Amino acid sequence: MAFNGLQPASGPFFLAPGASVRLNMWYGNQGDDHGAQWIMAHPLSGEAPTELIVSDHSKILDYAIGCVEENGSPRACPGQDPYYRYGVTVTNRGTSGVRFNIQGGGNT
């Protein structure tokens, strides 16, 4: 499943020169498993010449917390409601700040 132009509702991401940011994305409400995913930073048109480097690709498995024992305290329930996130680190190698979003999709 491909995606293009993914960014926060408030607008595109921004990185100062030499800065890095860790970004996580997911599919569905929790995070459906979509296999291997490729994520690329996409500098927006109209920005100064730049180079955005994407590194440290990861696939993250986590679990929802939500079990309650009767007459007991809430506790984590490992193995229940697993979800997946996909992560990358984006670094601005350019000499100017840059606005960008992300694009990519599944490896086939």
Describe this structure as you would to a colleague.
- The chain is mainly β and 108 residues long.
- The protein has strands at 3-6, 13-15, 20-25, 37-43, 52-63, 67-68, 74-75, 82-92, 98-106.
- The strands form three sheets. Strands 1, 2, 4 and 9 form a four-stranded antiparallel sheet that branches. Strands 3-8-5 form a three-stranded antiparallel sheet, with no helix packed on it.
- The radius of gyration is 17 Å and the shape is elongated.
- The model has no long low-confidence stretch (mean pLDDT 86).
Largest sheet entry? 4 strands, antiparallel
What string, H for helix and E for strand, traces the elements in order?
A: EEEEEEEEE
Low-pLDDT residue intervals, each spanning 5 or more residues: none
Tally the helices. 0
Any idea what the radius of gyration is?
A: 17 Å
Mean pLDDT: 86
Strand content: over 45%
Distance between the termini: 10 Å
| Structural class determined from secondary elements | mainly beta
Count all strands and give the number: 9
Sum up the overall morphology in one term. elongated
- What is the helix fraction of residues, given as a range? under 10%
